[in-house]
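Why run this: before we spend reagent on co-expression, it is cheaper to look at a predicted model of the complex and decide which construct boundaries make sense. The entries below are exactly what would go into the expression plan.
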Amino acid sequence: MNGYIHLYTGNGKGKTTAALGLALRAAGAGKKVFIGQFVKGMHYSELDALKRFSEITVKQYGRKCFIENEPVKEDIEAARKGLSDLAQLIPSDDYDMIIMDEVCIALYYKLFTVKELINVINNRTQNLEIILTGRYAPDELYEIADLVSEMKEIKHYYNKGIQARKGIEY
Amino acid sequence: MNGYIHLYTGNGKGKTTAALGLALRAAGAGKKVFIGQFVKGMHYSELDALKRFSEITVKQYGRKCFIENEPVKEDIEAARKGLSDLAQLIPSDDYDMIIMDEVCIALYYKLFTVKELINVINNRTQNLEIILTGRYAPDELYEIADLVSEMKEIKHYYNKGIQARKGIEY
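The model came back. Tokens follow.
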């Protein structure tokens, strides 16, 4: 079975959760999954749920808060550590699926370049499924992806002043 | 905390998986989740994965194959059983999140009406989060939803002749 590259982008809710759902489905089928979360170092409820899966490994490559305006040195270091880990994992046969959550945000903040990312992705084994998420995906990722879904925000309760809620947004 | 209504629709991949990811996150936060899958009675790998969660209950309200052209009697009966179960569950305090997966497809095939569905949803308790998925969502669901994300297919490997794969699509 060949592996493909998925890209979930756009400004609507559902990108990271779609990747998590894919991880769940893959683990249910006995596949091994690596989830690298870029830009995020906060605690998310899904991390607790994912601990129940020996098939799923999660690593975070971000600080405990989102980037405001400009990335700081720690943001760049964390993201580059992620890219370096993935450069090791992607050519290996250790995983059947690798999720690079919010990798488009890492690109948007220029924590590394799209060329560096594509070089890493290009070293994948034939069977590896790669999932890329995050808004602001650059054209180059649309080109290399085999599947692109854009999540488009039509309505969001944030616009009514609702705050992010534990168990729903994090 | 108030609960809201989410609608994940559109023709792109990521609707059911986004709902599964939400279920995972909610369970990680200790919430109780009910997933009713309309139109689907096939075996999906996520069902095996979800068995590890005592917080998550899944029921299927469909046959072992998709509807072709016209629904048969069993499709209608299965979907109406689902609506009837939800009419019981939604006003109760048994769950914190109720996912009605592919409910828009049930409406599209007229297995029940949008008015019947909205009547059931309107009996929800204040804290219940309701997640609706499926393409072809009718305008009435856009109106009642607090959050709408449209998954738009930009590219799909099905169009290259790739078949659905275990652990990725099912």
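Chain B touches chain A through 58 residues (CB under 8 Å). The mean pLDDT of chain B is 96. Bring this page to Monday's planning discussion.
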